[in-house]
Amino acid sequence: MQIAAMLRAGVYERRFSLDDVQAHLRASSGLPGVAVARRGLALRRDGSAGTKCWSEDHVHQAWERHGGPHPLVNVRGCTAITDYEPDFAFVEELVILEVDGDQHYDDPIQAALDRERDQLLIAAGWIVIRVYWRRVWSHLPMVLDAVRDALQSRRTGRDSRLRLSTYDILRCR
Hints:
The chain is α+β, with helices and mostly antiparallel strands. It contains nine helices and four strands, in the order ααααβββααβααα. Strands 1-2-3-4 form a four-stranded mixed beta sheet, sandwiched between helices. Helix 1 (about 1-10) packs across helix 3 (about 35-45) and helix 8 (about 140-155) packs antiparallel against helix 9 (about 165-170). The two termini are about 25 Å apart.
C-alpha cells in the first residue's frame, strides 16, 4: 500500500512517529479511510516499506486476497545485495517479483543494471520474476500463478514448470 510508503517517509523526515499515527487512528475510529490507514500502519510495523505505484498496489491487493505468504514490499537490504530494494521479496523462499515500468525497457543503462542485478541474485539462489507493469493489469492471474509456482517450487524442491514460458510472456511489452 502506498500509505505504508508515506508513513515510512514521514517517520524518516521526523514529522511523526508510528505511535503518533496509531493514537490518531484510535481517536478517529469509524471515520472513512481509517481501516485502510490501519492496514498501511500494520504493513509498516511488519517491516514493509509499502508500494510505490498503482500497479504494485494492484498486485499487493490481489496477493492479500489470495492469502499466500506475506512479502516484504520495497524493503532495502532484504536480499544478498544490500542497496537493492525489490518490489516484492519472499525472503524465506528466495523469490522476488519486480513490476517494471517503461524505464526498465526504454533506458539501456537501467536495462543493463537490471540484468546484472538479476544475475547476482540468481547466483545467490533467488528466483527473480520481472513483469511489465501493463501485464499486471492485463494478465494478473498469470502474474499471481507465476509467483505461486515459484514459491511452490521452493517448498517442494522441484523446478518451476511455468518459469520459462510464463515469465517470457509477462516480461514483454
